[in-house]
Amino acid sequence: MKLSYELLDRIAAEHGSTFYLLDSSRFRQNFEALSAAFRSYYPSTRVAYSYKTNYVPRFCQIIDQLGGFAEVVSSMELTLARRIGVPDEKIFFNGPYKELAYVKSLLEGGGTVNVDSWAELCAIRRMTDGIHGAPFKLGLRCNFDVQDGVLSRLGFDVHGAAFMEAISLIDANPSLALAGLQCHFATRSLACWENRTKGMIGVIDRLFRNRVASFEFVSLGGGMYGRMPPEMMAQFPVPIPEFDDYAVAAAKPFAEFLGGLGKNPSPVLMVEPGTALVADAMRFVCAVHSIKDVRGQSIVTLSGSSYNINPTPNRKNVPITVFSATEGEHLVERANFAGYTCIEGDYLYKGYTGRLSVGDYVVFDDVGSYSVVMKPPFILPNVAILEPDPDGVSYRLIKRRETYEDVFQSYAFA
Ligand SMILES: Cc1ncc(COP(=O)(O)O)c(C=O)c1O
């Protein structure tokens, strides 16, 4: 993406001095690279994009155009997928809480619902009894120990009675069909991908050896690192896997296992990446509002906040670039970049040394994951999203800046 002070300043004049920049070609490249890595080991791999990670409609549309699926966890995301024009058959409804009216309409439209609990399954059975259009496609969300130190709360314990009863209930009910299995673990390590694959293979081997060929899909969920620059990788205590490493950990053993069973046709292997596709497909731009010194610590206050880019307690420093109109009056040393809120911990970057002036723009890379979608209307509403054209001169509006009215309009004023 070609950026210049002039371009940023022009955008700021029109849309405010804080904004996101979207990079759809990077997003496309990530989709293609991840798909190719998995397909080289298991050709019928499909990518279902995790809407929650960043549901900017432009991203979701690109996924649909590229032949990807929509992975949604709420009726809000389901509504968005449909509004974009994604056909129901390409929508997979996950998540621990689902509104039944939407579950029903997705099932009737030919979509797939991955069931998270026994109570949810019973409600679906009651609701679908005697409805036309059956059998409806269900998946079961699988929960097992992936040795990551986390007791996951998602899905059925695959060693518990409820899981076995769920399989029996679906099998006994002509309105329902077990179309596949799903799991999701948040840990991004390669070990977690090896263990989740082993775990799913174990479930299939134990319970579904004879019918796995009739499954439409087996999904291994999301939770992969995206591609990142070396300076970011260096901040992680472990090596960051590449897409091919994940494919070797997951698609390869899955292909070997199914090959060993001699199953043909085989189910689609699905992955549900969010972060891996979108993290480096967005940047965040703020203007420098003030530069001051407090007991020897240089503090730069910006027009943006860590709440715009996900305020996790141990924030990594994402790569930044400073764009100045001048040569920069100040030389700041080990400066901390603070946000516009009054929260003491609102820092976007720590330890910057270099030239910097009030009015400069700071561009933060790698902020596409859980940023825009998690910004609360705290102190200020959210900012605009623009996509610069490859020429680095023009740009298009992706989302207008939110107004104060947007925030106030849902309240009742006496
Ligand atoms: C079911 C499911 N799939 C996929 C994802 C995407 O995860 P990530 O953005 O880490 O790839 C999540 C995230 O919580 C999820 O819950």
What does this structure look like?
- The protein has 414 residues and is α/β, with parallel strands linked by helices.
- The chain has 2 domains: 5-21 and 281-408, Lyase, Ornithine Decarboxylase, Chain A, domain 1, CATH 2.40.37.10; 24-279, TIM Barrel.
- 31% of the residues lie in helices and 24% in strands.
- It has helices at 5-15, 24-39, 57-65, 75-84, 100-108, 118-128, 161-172, 190-207, 230-233, 243-261, 275-278, 404-408, and strands spanning 19-22, 45-50, 69-72, 91-93, 112-115, 136-143, 156-157, 176-182, 217-219, 268-271, 282-294, 297-302, 320-323, 330-338, 347-356, 361-364, 384-388, 395-399.
- Strands 1, 11, 12, 13, 14, 15, 16, 17 and 18 form a 9-stranded mixed β-sheet that branches. It has an 8-stranded parallel beta barrel with strand order 2-3-4-5-6-8-9-10, surrounded by 6 helices.
- The longest helix is centred in the middle third of the chain and has 19 residues, at 243-261.
Short description:
The protein is of the alpha/beta class and 414 residues long.
Offer a few descriptive terms:
414 residues; alpha/beta; Lyase, Ornithine Decarboxylase, Chain A, domain 1; 2 domains; 9-stranded mixed β-sheet; 8-stranded parallel barrel; 12 helices; binds pyridoxal-5'-phosphate
**Which shape, going by the Cα principal axes?**
elongated
Biggest sheet, open or closed, and with what strands and sense? Answer: 9 strands, mixed
Count all strands and give the number. 18
How much is the average pLDDT?
Answer: 95
Q: Mind telling me the C-alpha Rg?
A: 23 Å
Task: Write the CATH architecture name of the largest domain.
Answer: Alpha-Beta Barrel
CATH topology of the largest domain: TIM Barrel
Helix content: 25-40%
Distinct helical segment count: 12
In the CATH scheme, the class of the largest domain would be Alpha Beta
